[in-house]
Write a structure and sequence with these properties.
By secondary structure, chain A is of the alpha+beta class. In chain A, the strands form nine sheets. In chain A, strands 5-4-9-2-1-11-14-13 form an eight-stranded mixed sheet, covered by helices on one side. In chain B, strands 1, 2, 4, 5, 8, 10, 12, 13 and 14 form a nine-stranded mixed sheet that branches. In chain B, strands 25-26-24-23-30-34-33-32 form an eight-stranded mixed sheet. In chain B, strands 20-19-18-21-22 form a five-stranded antiparallel sheet, with helices on one face. Classes of the chains: A alpha+beta (640), B alpha+beta (658).
Chain lengths: 640, 658
């Protein structure tokens, strides 16, 4: 015990000395261009036992050094989160301000605790304690120290070594009795910056992870989420001993499943006549299993709105289908519940399924922990294959997963004891199409035309979603946004929206339009660029700066044909060359065709990858460098 | 007026009330909560709406509970939802609870399209606190298309003698709305309706005074480009004006009284505060021979570079000057106090100004709603200019543009005997004149040796507000982000990965003191603006001025056009015509859209060119002399805005001389 105490003291006393040993000037040298750095970010977790049940206590320290006076006001605000599962037991914060000889400590005295606003959730128990650091001037070091109590050791939180500012020193340590099986997974540490040290004092073991001078990450709006690239460690309890017995926690996916399945006890176990009646009426005259499932999915999508209450276990336990039916609202679990119940009532083999959306980078096999999923859907097996039904999108097409779960693993609950792990398919590019057929005429510099655009797959899904929320004038604004091409002088004179296949969410939008000043008529010549829309931007990806993959919502195909009716008295004088670029990431082509009295330009784009990885950037940039000049070629017409 | 008659009137069920064209039962405190509610017809003029407030009724009842005057607010809403969008707008309800108030008697239910009534259970009503505000929140159950939701609640609180109620929204129209203010007979309130909201004279009913208000058929009022909508919303403001039991001649809560009180609050300092402030000023190294204006500038800059101002900062000593200096943090009020304390230390004459902020609900000069006072400026009579103490990014004489060029309550300090006080008076708040605010450009372009790309020397010259909104980049961004931002600014001329000779001049916040122009220049090498038509070069010349705002196809306009600040854009562009080439269509450059009032150009876009020694020289002048253009001039305003966007479309055709 004494040895342990010593090491504890060592930890507390020596660490700050090391940090404050770094002067502002040294930090500025290490991280030029920065206004502030995290000088120290550390968490030490201790696993203890109360009446044979393990708990965890975490002590977090975060220190930021300010390198520039102008930073005052930028990094002053901080906040700490807590919930039922992760109770905040202590918070202390202050700023150490240089005063010539040493430092003066100015304490934070005002802490404000309130509900933490969450975008998707209507009500939950997550609270946020916020406060402001005083005097964040050059040389100041802000310090916040918190203690959290986890009554359930399943909720050990992830520790990030990298952050939005550089981190000079990041340390995570966990101390635990030797018969607790602690495991860890390190992510995004390709250069092996993190050092791991295991020590033992008496019956206590300690694992410590350290990383120094970790570069900050840059976040990109069109990129993957932070866990895909930020350096972090997931530490978890695989099992522990109590009363001479080994209690498994998250030793394998089997254990995670067992825990998850526990939340389904007694869900939809009592039959309900109303639910049965409505299911029967929905399935009336539906002959095949597929037709039945489709009709039920459609009904739930159209009648149950997304509203999430997540207080305590509400965040894990689906509500009874019959309640969802009467309330007409619910979160993903509730929608999965009513779907699964109705599908079963119609005689189908439907199951609750857990899944992580694409914002989570982990697979269940790699990370068999609760952090791997954040979503629930219903899976139904028809003709031997699984169909994934997610009713949170009111216009998702039956048979296609919502775009945000493509390629992810679904943990399908077959029975309380049995599960299946099935990969949700990525929908191929041929499924989601924009097919645009436009006819153009020229009068002076004004181009007039009519276009007809078909949308299918995820594009159709998106059109239907937008039509749900854009009515009247807003519908016209939406249609114009979809139709606009050529330049921002595009004037949409008339439009029509046809929902050509409401089951498969196919739509057609057509419009009659005019684009003044789009063509150039000079003397006996007319110039016009027949690529009225540029499907690929001209800016290459800056490979020196960007290390984060581009994330596409889905794979797609766009086909655009612009046909120009050659005005009377003119003939074609110059037609640009065709181009074709094809690689692993995309296929792109422009082809021109001269017909009788008309010239057409066909642009085709196929996006082949959901994630354009940094390794793909050169291929992408090479394509851009070929496409950009092609986009600049104009057709020339000349008077006969 | 007989209260009983009005009560009798309301016994008829709501259905018939809605069916009639006019708002009824104006003198009843609450709406009936029918045992068996019936669905209503959607009024014909609101077809195609996603949802409609059939009724929004709000009562503010001030009455004595024992000796204590207490305020009871009653709110009742009945909403018809017609489609999915309507359902999603109203299936989650948030009820805001004012500070020190209790909310009770919450009733909420859905009448489904089939007529079934589903009441929200009491245990499903949650409470939470967000951004310092408490809410009750609940989800409506069983909603479907064509259903109606109905809810009402009471709030009990300490009395507030000011109120402002808005009855117009961005997305949902109102069919009928009601307001009722009930007070003990000796407390006389004044109320005023705005933009079509009607207020009836107050009438005594037994021992209480009733002021009813109403409106109907209120359409949505959404955001519009160059539109400031808040001032145009249908609303009612009210306040306590007389206590007839005390002195019926003396108006309570006037702007003058506010001026006195606010002045005392802001400009009374303890000796310790004065001492701390004096010591702080010592660090500013203000030269003895500095002019008064210079002293103002130096004090402002010294304070703002050392003190972080955060509007939301709270705490006991947040506006105490000693604590402000120690912690380096304060809120808006503390920043104003601190600055005033320093001005007094230096004996500088000043006036405190509460602006009628142009993009918020305006201050009404007749009805003194003290609650609307939120922002503070300091005005200097000696120079006629302003400081905004709470804005870390602005320096003398620039303040938030929406706070200037408007009316404001000026607090002019004076002393009566030993007592410091102030006289309050509304006056115009000056704004820096239009020619001081510029977004100018000097550009020289030429073809490179290959003939496929352009080399563009670009110089953007920003003055006044044009610079004031950019300068914070160089103060508050880290170096790497500054560089990215500068590149973005230069790329507004032409996109390129190849930008050389990047130079930025006069980037300091204090360069606004003498309005020294902020200059951002660079040499752009780009192929972006050139296209090919066979053997001709098409030069997208118009794009050099950067993408311009356009209003080619707009929804029907409801609001007049208003600008953040009046300004001028002067652009000089030259282009070396490549040897052996001619420009086929230089006359496309000539444009002239101007609007004059009394021979003064109030807005306009003109462009012209000349060719000198084979160099094309283009001059463009775009002006917006006024802050506001009335709805009647909107079409012209649109033409001027679109003229610059039309300029964007100019393509010069370069052809080899034969």
């Amino acid at each position: 015990m004494k040895a342990f105490l010593l090491s504890f003291l060592f930890h507390v006393l020596l660490l700050p000395a090391f940090i404050y040993g770094q002067s502002v000037e040294q930090m500025q040298q290490l991280f030029p261009d920065k206004m502030a750095v995290f000088s120290n970010v550390s968490r030490s977790v201790e696993i203890g036992f109360k009446k044979g049940v393990p708990y965890a206590e975490a002590n977090d320290v975060s220190e930021m050094m300010i390198l520039n006076d102008n930073a005052n006001g930028i990094y002053n605000k901080d906040e700490v989160y807590n919930s039922d599962f992760n109770e905040l037991t202590k918070i202390e914060a202050y700023t150490l301000v240089p005063d010539g000889n040493g430092t003066t400590k100015i304490k934070v005295t005002d802490f404000k605790t309130q509900s933490s606003a969450s975008h998707d959730v209507f009500y939950d128990d997550v609270k946020e304690t916020s406060f402001d650091f005083p005097r964040m001037m050059k040389g100041s070091v802000s310090h916040v120290e918190t203690e959290h109590f986890n009554k359930d050791i399943r909720f050990l939180s992830t520790f990030y070594f990298s952050n939005y500012l550089p981190v000079h020193n990041a340390t995570y340590s966990i101390t635990f009795p030797e018969d607790v099986d602690i495991r860890y997974i390190i992510k995004n540490d390709d250069k092996k910056i993190i050092t791991v040290k295991e020590t033992k004092k008496g019956r206590m073991k300690k694992l410590a992870f350290t990383a120094n001078d970790v570069k900050n990450y840059d976040h990109f709006g069109d990129g993957t989420s932070i866990p895909y690239y930020a350096m972090h460690v997931l530490v978890y309890v695989a099992s522990y001993q109590t009363g001479g017995e080994t209690v498994p926690v998250f030793s394998s996916l089997d254990e995670l499943y067992k825990w998850n399945a526990g939340f389904l006890n007694n869900i939809n176990s009592v039959a309900d006549d109303n639910l049965k009646r409505i299911t029967d009426s929905i399935c009336l005259n539906k002959k095949t299993d597929r037709e039945k499932a489709q009709a039920i999915y459609f009904w739930v999508q159209n009648h149950v709105k997304y509203v999430a209450f997540e207080q305590g276990l509400e965040g894990f336990v689906p509500r009874q289908a019959v309640d969802v039916f009467s309330k007409r609202y619910g979160d993903c679990k509730d929608m999965a519940s009513i779907l699964t119940a109705m599908l079963k009532l119609s005689g189908l083999n439907a199951c609750f399924s857990w899944i992580g959306t694409r914002s989570i980078p982990y697979t269940y096999t790699e990370v068999p922990l609760p952090v791997t999923d954040n979503h629930m859907i219903s899976a139904v097996k028809i003709d031997g294959s699984w169909i994934f039904l997610d009713a949170t999108d009111p216009n998702c097409i039956f048979g296609m997963p919502t775009s945000g779960i493509q390629g992810k693993e679904a943990l399908i609950s077959i029975s309380p004891e049995k599960y299946e792990l099935v990969k949700v398919p990525v929908m191929p590019a041929v499924n989601s199409n924009i097919t645009d057929s436009t006819f153009l005429t020229i009068s002076g510099n004004t181009v007039s035309g009519n276009c007809s655009v078909n949308y299918s797959g995820y594009f159709g899904n998106d059109v239907y979603d937008n039509l749900l929320y854009n009515k009247g004038d807003d519908e016209r604004v939406y249609a114009r946004r979809r139709m606009a091409k050529g330049s921002n002088k595009f004037i949409m004179k008339d439009y029509k929206i046809k929902l050509t296949d409401q089951v498969n969410k196919r739509a057609n939008i057509s419009s009659v339009f005019e684009i003044p000043d789009y063509a150039k008529a000079i003397a006996d010549e007319i110039y016009i660029n027949l690529n009225l829309e540029k499907l690929i931007g001209s800016t290459p990806i800056d490979t020196s700066k960007r290390k984060v993959a581009v994330e596409n919502d889905f794979l797609y195909t766009i086909n655009q044909v612009h046909t120009l009716i050659i005005p009377d008295g003119y003939i074609s004088d110059y037609i640009p060359k065709n181009i074709l670029v094809s690689n692993d990431v995309l296929e792109f082509s422009i082809s021109y065709q001269l017909g009788t009295g008309e010239i057409s330009a066909t642009q085709k784009l196929i996006i082949k990858k959901l994630y354009i990885q940094p390794a793909d950037f050169p291929a992408w940039n090479q394509a851009v460098s070929m496409i950009s000049p092609a986009y600049k070629e104009q057709v020339v017409l000349k008077k006969k | 007026m007989n209260k009983r008659i009005f009560l009798l009137l309301t016994t008829s069920i709501l259905y018939s009330l809605i069916g009639s064209a006019q708002v009824d039962s104006l003198y009843t405190e609450t709406e009936p909560w029918a045992l068996s509610p019936v669905l209503h017809q959607l009024p014909a003029n609101f077809k195609n709406e996603s949802a409609l407030y059939l009724m929004d009724s709000r009562t503010f009842h001030y009455k004595f509970e024992g000796k204590n005057l207490t305020q009871f607010n009653y709110v009742y809403r009945l909403i018809k939802v017609e489609d999915d969008k309507g359902i999603e707008m109203f299936n989650k309800i948030y009820l805001a609870i004012p500070n020190n108030a209790t909310i009770y008697d919450i009733k909420a239910r859905v009448i489904t399209a089939a007529g079934k009534v589903i009441t929200v259970p009491a245990d499903k009503i949650k409470e939470e606190e967000e951004d310092g505000k408490r809410y009750k929140l609940f989800a409506m159950e069983g909603m479907d298309k064509g259903s109606e939701i109905e809810y009402s609640y009471m709030i009990k609180k300490d009395p507030s003698f000011f109120g402002s109620e808005i009855f117009q929204s961005k997305s949902v129209p109102y069919y009928q709305v009601k307001l009722l203010i009930i007070t003990p007979d000796h407390l006389k309130f004044e109320a005023k309706g705005f933009n079509g909201f009607s207020i009836l004279p107050d009438s005594l009913v037994k021992e209480e005074r009733f002021i009813p208000g109403y409106s109907e058929n209120i359409k949505e009022l959404g955001d519009e480009k160059y539109g400031l909508r808040d001032a145009y919303l249908q609303r009612a403001d009210f306040k306590l004006s007389y206590n007839l039991a005390q002195n019926s001649d003396v108006e309570l809560y006037t702007w003058k009284e506010l001026a006195r009180k606010a002045y005392t609050n802001i400009s009374t300092f303890s000796d310790k505060e004065k001492k701390a402030s004096s010591k702080f000023i010592g660090g500013a190294n203000i030269p003895n021979d500095a002019t008064e204006e210079k002293v103002i500038m130096l004090l402002e800059d010294y304070m703002k570079t050392r003190i972080n101002v955060d509007e939301k900062l709270a705490g006991e000593d947040v506006d105490n000057i000693e604590a402000i200096i120690k912690k380096g943090n304060t809120n808006n009020f503390g920043a104003v106090r601190f600055f005033v304390c320093m001005l007094e230390n230096k004996n500088i004459r000043y006036q405190i100004v509460f602006p009628s902020v142009r993009n918020q609900l305006p201050l009404d000069e007749d009805l003194a709603n003290w609650n609307r006072i939120d922002e503070t400026l300091i005005y200097f009579p000696s120079t006629g200019k302003l400081v905004e103490p709470s804005a870390s990014a602005f320096r003398y004489p620039f303040v938030d543009a929406y706070w200037a060029g408007t009316r404001g309550l000026f607090l002019k300090g004076t002393t009566i005997g030993d007592m410091k006080t102030a006289i309050g008076k509304f006056d115009d708040i000056p704004i820096e004149p239009f020619e001081q605010n510029a977004h100018n450009m000097e550009i020289h372009a030429r073809l490179d040796a290959s003939g496929d790309s352009l080399i563009i020397d670009s110089k953007q010259i920003l003055k006044g507000y044009g610079a004031a909104y950019y300068r914070p980049l160089w103060t508050f961004l880290a170096k790497d982000k500054q560089d990215e931002a500068v590149k973005d600014i230069i790329q507004s001329v032409a996109k390129s990965e190849n930008i050389q000779n990047i130079k930025t001049e006069n980037t300091s916040l204090t360069d606004s003191w003498d309005n020294i122009p902020l200059i951002i220049s660079g040499t752009i090498h780009t192929a972006e603006l050139l296209e090919r038509a066979g053997n001709k070069i098409l030069f997208k010349f118009g794009e050099l001025i950067g993408t311009q705002e356009q209003m080619y196809q707009e929804k029907p306009r409801q609001l007049p056009a208003e600008l953040q600040y009046a300004h001028i854009l002067e652009r000089k562009i030259s282009f070396d015509i490549p040897p052996g080439y001619t420009i086929r269509n230089p006359d496309d450059i000539n444009m002239n859209v101007q609007h004059t009032v009394n021979d003064v150009v109030t807005m306009g876009f003109i462009s012209s060119y000349k060719i000198v020694n084979n160099v094309l020289e283009v001059y463009i002048l775009e002006t917006y002399r006024q802050l506001k253009y009335p709805l009647a001039e909107f079409e012209t305003f649109k033409k001027v805005i679109n003229a610059s966007a039309d300029f964007n479309k100019i393509v010069l055709v370069l052809e080899k001389k034969v």
